[in-house]
Amino acid sequence: MSHVVTVPELLDGHTVLDIECLDRIYLNGYVPKLQVGGQVVTFLHDHRGMPIASPAVFEQIGTRFRQAVARFAESNDVPMVKFKKGIRKASVMEPLLRRAARAGRSRVVAIGWAQEFQLVWTARKRDTDPARPPQFSFAKTDRRVTCYYFYVWDEFWGPGFIKVCAYFPYPAKVWLNGHEHSKQAAASAGIGFTELSNGFARCDDPDGLQVICDRLGPPDIQAFFDRWTAVIPVPFTAADRAAGYWWELSMRQVEVSRTLVFDAPRQARAFFEALIADNLDLGRPENVELLFKRDPRGRKPKDQAGGVFKTAIDRNNQGVTINAFWRHSRVKQYLKDGRALRVETVVNSPDDLGVARRLPNLPELQARARAVNTRLLHTEESARDVSSIVQPLRGYRSPPSPVMAGGPQDYGSATLESWPWPAPWPTYCAPSPASRTRACAP
């Protein structure tokens, strides 16, 4: 007789490692004192001492910055790489970062550059008396400008980069990886481990590793940013920084993961595909709201819950990923390296979880995202006979599940628009060539 069980019940006693950790961290760097037009005038006239608050100063500062980058690259033997359109930046830099990792010394590995659209300040000359000095008004506009990517290998963080725009107000980005930081910290603490790609497969001290992951927070990220902005060229001077014209960091995208490593990975794919088939309704409004529920005392989101609620199944060369979307964010689940179940809450707007964007609020965001991951596992159910799923994890021989009987299936994608699906299996369809997440036809 079928018995409905949750994922934690199924996996109880069949995992060798269960780790929660920050994954990819992508931050905005912005200057709080240069966010409105009046502050631009104050910077140019009062701080820089210009008699006329003219946009010509923007180009002067930008030119000096570009020249400083070129000198830095030449004097430190750092290659400068122009990013071509359509080429994945990480793929271009990966060989250089791997070489730096083998050397084990903190350094700027390479400087990538490209012309990209950025939100920058532009000026318009006001209609004033020609006999008097010109006056300008300032507004933010998307313009195609030069951006520099300073790829570094850091002894505490491993690979990362800082991106700096070469035009006023010089917005910045920071990319880091929490798993890489935890690997460096575990190695320094003498904790033995086996790596997954972007994760851990085994560990001699799981509790100690979890403590390291829990300890990672805003001070570590801020220290990384401060350490490298003291090394690389920046458009702001020491006098600018002393006057408060410097970057603060806010959260642009944060991935919070939980990884459960199976003790018998050869049966992991059968388990995961069966799990997908039984939980295609995760994206329905009543379910996704349950996953992302927030403390009623938290901040209210700027927009109401709405738009398209869906469960999307992405197919790629690495396997299948199931996504449940909520506002700008999502929670996803996939098989990692064929041996671990990875659950990740991808927060594209901290507002979605009722958290402010500034970096000091990262611990609160991480706690709420971890709760989403936990609720997902406890919400997912399977109506199959427990023994048919648990026994393969023990390595026993058992008949293949309906999903695996004919080999891996092409799920395409299923969304609410295709509801109802034939129970218990979804409608299989080929996705649109232009999109991996196109809904099946109803």
Provide an overview of this structure:
It is a single chain. By secondary structure, the chain is α+β, with helices and mostly antiparallel strands. The chain folds into two domains: 5-21 and 254-418, no CATH class; 32-169 and 216-246, no CATH class. It contains 13 helices and 15 strands. The strands form three sheets. It has an eleven-stranded mixed sheet, sandwiched between helices. Strands 1-15 form a two-stranded antiparallel sheet. It has a two-stranded antiparallel sheet with strand order 8-9. The longest helix is centred in the first third of the chain and has 20 residues, at 56-75. It is elongated, with a radius of gyration of 25 Å. The chain starts with a strand and ends in a 37-residue tail after the last helix. The model is unreliable at 294-298, 303-309 and 382-442 (pLDDT under 50).
Write the layout of secondary structure elements.
Blueprint: E1 5-6, H1 7-11, E2 15-30, H2 37-47, H3 56-75, E3 80-82, H4 89-103, E4 107-125, E5 136-154, E6 158-165, E7 172-177, H5 178-188, E8 193-196, E9 199-203, H6 206-215, H7 218-229, H8 238-242, E10 248-262, H9 268-278, H10 285-291, E11 311-316, E12 319-326, E13 329-336, E14 340-347, H11 362-379, E15 381-382, H12 386-394, H13 402-405
Parallel strand pairs: 3-4
Antiparallel strand pairs: 1-15, 2-7, 2-10, 4-5, 5-6, 6-7, 8-9, 10-14, 11-12, 12-13, 13-14
Helix pairs in contact: 5-6
